[in-house]
Queue: 4 jobs
Job 1
Amino acid sequence: MTQPDLIACPCGSGRSLAGCCGRYHAGDPAPTPEALMRSRYSAFALDLADYLLATWHPSTRPARLDPDPATVWKCLEVLEVLESGEEGERGWVHFRATFREGRRWSVLEESSRFVREAGRWFYLDGNPTVHRLKPGRNAPCPCGSGRKFKACCG
């Protein structure tokens, strides 16, 4: 079994899972809205539905969250610092998350809202849009590797 301190965190921080989002998955409170959003992305990538529900504000949380084995989360991109931040007990993060369902590629873009209660940040809601991608063989791979699509995920 692979150790969490040896695998890269799915959020794309460049750190190990244990040194990044894994500590929040284990119970440490995320210190900022961006840290919570990154840990939630990683939880989607790792199928950690309990963590996703626990970090979703009760006023907007669904009763349950079923995993979708067809969706493979590939890349997270936090957009411009000016579009992400916090003010008092409120926070927001604008991001793009690239995913694949079978052979289809898509990008989910969302401006998420967060609220802090009793010292913990919670995901409140967002306005997601999903766009289909059609990467060409010689285009950069949408997974964020920097390689050509045909030599990577194509």
Job 2
Amino acid sequence: MIVSELILPLFMIFLTLGLGIYAAAVLDRLLAARQRIPVADSAWRSPLSNAAWLLLQQTNTTEAPDTPAWQLAPALYLSLAAMGLSLVPWSPTLIATDLATGLVLWGSFEALATVVIFLQGWAANAHLALIGAYRYVALGLSYLLISMFVLIGVALPAESLRFIDVVEAQAPLWHVIGQPLGLPLFLVVGLGLTFWGPLNLADSSDLSGGTSSEISGPLRLVWQMARMAMLVAFSAVAATAFLGGWLGPWLPGPVWVLLKTLGVLALLLWLGRSMPRVAPERCVTLMWVVLLPLAFVDLIWAGTLALLMA
């Protein structure tokens, strides 16, 4: 009985990851085409042809790398994305991992992602990759603190850390409306967690690829897939925490979760293509002086609203 109850949630996780990774790659190439950035192939075929090309490439190596850690880091990052997606409820009864501390566990995945990204840069034993890793660690704490305040804010009305309770607490009013600062701040966390677009400081072009500057072939493919998978997992968590998860008229709950996840994913990709990359020193100031105080304001607002509605 337990095995049969897990089959459908696991199927939804792998289906969402697979479709989400492909959709993210296609959307990113469509946005690149709109900006007149050359794309070698059709946006629909390009992700598949690029994956096939990387699979056939020879794997690079450096002098005295930590080979086991170097090969394990992309798989670990992909695993964190899959485990994060397992926390997302598709309906009141359809969820792979229903924990009383689901929000806390997601926060731990964000912290572990920092360790894995640093491991990716450190294990290569190359200076550009190591600089990219240290860049990410220097900013990782600010992302975690902003995420912590914002997620506590969505937990207060539910009086629970379960994702299911957070969704059910949004039946009268979605958190994107009741806590207007929450979703924008959480999207910043998502851009930082996946080092995407304006917050791509770990794998940026000024470092010739940063933490991924020395990898090629299948390892590079897994690293790219892991970044896309983390974008998908983060989008699903954002849709659950701020957009009401499965709540919606007419359509089944899982369909609403998929549609909202794709909507947040498209928004993150558009932000990544539309906004210029922030300089590292300015990013530190932005996080600690502007966004972190705003996250604290969001927490006070959420607590006050929860008291008034109690």
Job 3
Amino acid sequence: MSGEVSNERHLSKKDIARCTNRLYIGAEMSNSYERLQALVFCASMAPALKKLYPDKEEYIQALKRHLVFYNTDSIPGGVILGIILGMEEQKANGEELTADAITSLKTGLMGPVAAIGDTIIWAAYMPILIALFLPFANQGNPIGGILPLIIYPLTTYLLMRYLATKGYQVGRESVLKILRNGSMSAVIFCANVIGLMMMGALSASYVTISTPFKLTASGSEFVFQEFLDMVLPGILPLTAVFLIYWYMTKKGPNFNRILLVVVIISVIGSITGIL
């Protein structure tokens, strides 16, 4: 009948945006050793779940299933939020979709999405963005410190919004196909190469180590740094970078300890005249 009113519940663009805003703002603020990002993910889902499940008991059950352990890179993790919103909408409208299926898919996507985010966002995009503005900061220009703090949150927020919307639209099957067909592996490999190039360029440009050590024999002076510049230019900064990298791979990113060791070595090297 033309006058029949549909009982289906649908999420609007505003609903998805509201959930995304919550996730972006709180993604790293509610971490706990027990569940990591579960609390903020549940809080991000809450407005949509309240709309999809007007029955109080169903709403409570929906909240509970999103309080289980959750942890991934929050920016590309927007696609998980979008997919889960779409699945909750399907479940609320009576489709054959169990709570376990929703939880399992969310858990299964955490690892691949985190790998993509860590590789592209943290290892490639952020170093490139910082490298672009480091010359300005080095010259005392304030835009070198201000613009990255504006550009990074703006671009990552827009990316999360886009991924959440697309995740909601394309659904779980399309994302799983992307992860399985191998195309994402090529993207991750390219991002790794770019990130390594940028880190190498930053190390060569901004890590400066030299030695004033010299020897005098038979009236001739041998300057060790001049010899290194002729044979292996930049070998001291490169050695320092690789030693720190080796330590981090073996012992983990204990930055306070690394900084303390660097300061101690610098002081001893300065006192003894080696560095």
Job 4
Amino acid sequence: MTSQYCQSIFVVVMMFCSHTLGIEEQATHLRGDHVDISMLRRNVDDGHPTDDFYSRDLACRVDMVGLEGTYYYTARPENAGTVCATYLLAESNDLVEIEFTEFDVDCSDPENEVQFFDGWTMGYGSFPGVDDHPLTIAERVVNVCSQRSRVFRSHQNGAMITFKLTDAAASFAFTFRPIHNPEPCNVIAPEPSGAHTLRNYGNERNCSFSIIYPVTIHIWEMAVGGYDNGDARLRCHMGLDYVELLEGNSLDMSAMTTEGSICGHVGNIVRQNGDGDSLNRNNHIVPGESSCQSDAFSVPLMCHNSVIRLVSSSQYVNEVSFRFNRLNIARSECPETDL
């Protein structure tokens, strides 16, 4: 990564780092903004993509990690007592795994803190939300000093390390490895534009795709719940299984505005028969209803954060496929009170 691009990342992130937020177990995370993960895959010297194992020092107070490799931090007097955050981001179908290979921190000093957070938080709220993650917030915050094992793995493709070191001699190093996730549920978009499919794999759980940009969402295939749309065109009626389209200026989905709730069938989808097993040979492809063509459903989401959330009971094998394209707008069109 070139020094010029490092500076641009810092400027973008710091625009949203107006304050810190304490959560349970004294976890403190900074407000930041998403960085295109493809831009993180750069060689320090020439700026070209590389497949070599990557290694570099971490910055304080905000840094982003998206490339497999080893990362180092050594405390400096000017950063003593400063809360620093490193955002870790893998591809959509991966989990984040880190292993501390060096850890020279005086854990007897309560002023020294190094924590792993299973997810992301930026100022207000966290992703995944408290209703969508298998662990409580307290369980998602891990004090590295209190753990015998120094290997940590997330439940989704995003995680964080936050640290505050007062000892000028303190240092640590960790290796970042993406681990394949066979059933990805909650995802932080690794690119500002692209396509993705959310699935519940027949389970009772909520899965969300969070894009830290204003975007336009295009639904192009969907099989959610047992409702056949017909002339209703994707509208939901008191169902337990549906898709929400949310927008807001933070990661807190409870504070976001719902721009639509949809369900039913559209596009070329797999109708589930028998026991609902996606591998059931009785399943067959059927075309979407002519009145429910995906081109008819496109929604602009104009805030800092855009979310597609699949809410599922265990009654159906649900999936929704969509495209998302970043909107070229200068600032969020959501009320500033949402910040």
